[in-house]
Amino acid sequence: MSKKKSVRGMARKALTSIPFVQTPRKNTGLPPGTLVFTGNKKIEEAKVSICRYNAEKFVGEGLTLSDVYGAEAGIITWVDVRGLHEVELVEEIGRGFHIHPLILEDILDVSQRPKFEEYKEGYFCILRDYQFDPGKLEIRPEQVAIYVNTGQGFVVSFQEAESDLLKDVRSRLEMGKGKIRMRGADYLSYALMDRIVDNYFFLLDDMGVKLEDIENEVLASASSAIRKDIHKMKRELHGMRRSISPLREAINMMIKSEVAGITSTTAIYLRDLYDHTVQALDLTETFRENINSLNDLYLSELSFRMNKVMQVLTIVATIFIPLTFIVGVYGMNFDHMPELHWRYGYPVVWTIMMGCAILMLFYFRRRDWL
Amino acid sequence: MSKKKSVRGMARKALTSIPFVQTPRKNTGLPPGTLVFTGNKKIEEAKVSICRYNAEKFVGEGLTLSDVYGAEAGIITWVDVRGLHEVELVEEIGRGFHIHPLILEDILDVSQRPKFEEYKEGYFCILRDYQFDPGKLEIRPEQVAIYVNTGQGFVVSFQEAESDLLKDVRSRLEMGKGKIRMRGADYLSYALMDRIVDNYFFLLDDMGVKLEDIENEVLASASSAIRKDIHKMKRELHGMRRSISPLREAINMMIKSEVAGITSTTAIYLRDLYDHTVQALDLTETFRENINSLNDLYLSELSFRMNKVMQVLTIVATIFIPLTFIVGVYGMNFDHMPELHWRYGYPVVWTIMMGCAILMLFYFRRRDWL
Amino acid sequence: MSKKKSVRGMARKALTSIPFVQTPRKNTGLPPGTLVFTGNKKIEEAKVSICRYNAEKFVGEGLTLSDVYGAEAGIITWVDVRGLHEVELVEEIGRGFHIHPLILEDILDVSQRPKFEEYKEGYFCILRDYQFDPGKLEIRPEQVAIYVNTGQGFVVSFQEAESDLLKDVRSRLEMGKGKIRMRGADYLSYALMDRIVDNYFFLLDDMGVKLEDIENEVLASASSAIRKDIHKMKRELHGMRRSISPLREAINMMIKSEVAGITSTTAIYLRDLYDHTVQALDLTETFRENINSLNDLYLSELSFRMNKVMQVLTIVATIFIPLTFIVGVYGMNFDHMPELHWRYGYPVVWTIMMGCAILMLFYFRRRDWL
Amino acid sequence: MSKKKSVRGMARKALTSIPFVQTPRKNTGLPPGTLVFTGNKKIEEAKVSICRYNAEKFVGEGLTLSDVYGAEAGIITWVDVRGLHEVELVEEIGRGFHIHPLILEDILDVSQRPKFEEYKEGYFCILRDYQFDPGKLEIRPEQVAIYVNTGQGFVVSFQEAESDLLKDVRSRLEMGKGKIRMRGADYLSYALMDRIVDNYFFLLDDMGVKLEDIENEVLASASSAIRKDIHKMKRELHGMRRSISPLREAINMMIKSEVAGITSTTAIYLRDLYDHTVQALDLTETFRENINSLNDLYLSELSFRMNKVMQVLTIVATIFIPLTFIVGVYGMNFDHMPELHWRYGYPVVWTIMMGCAILMLFYFRRRDWL
Amino acid sequence: MSKKKSVRGMARKALTSIPFVQTPRKNTGLPPGTLVFTGNKKIEEAKVSICRYNAEKFVGEGLTLSDVYGAEAGIITWVDVRGLHEVELVEEIGRGFHIHPLILEDILDVSQRPKFEEYKEGYFCILRDYQFDPGKLEIRPEQVAIYVNTGQGFVVSFQEAESDLLKDVRSRLEMGKGKIRMRGADYLSYALMDRIVDNYFFLLDDMGVKLEDIENEVLASASSAIRKDIHKMKRELHGMRRSISPLREAINMMIKSEVAGITSTTAIYLRDLYDHTVQALDLTETFRENINSLNDLYLSELSFRMNKVMQVLTIVATIFIPLTFIVGVYGMNFDHMPELHWRYGYPVVWTIMMGCAILMLFYFRRRDWL
Question: Hey, what domains does chain D have and what are their CATH numbers?
Answer without folding.
Answer: 22-300 (3.30.460.20), 305-366 (1.20.58.340)
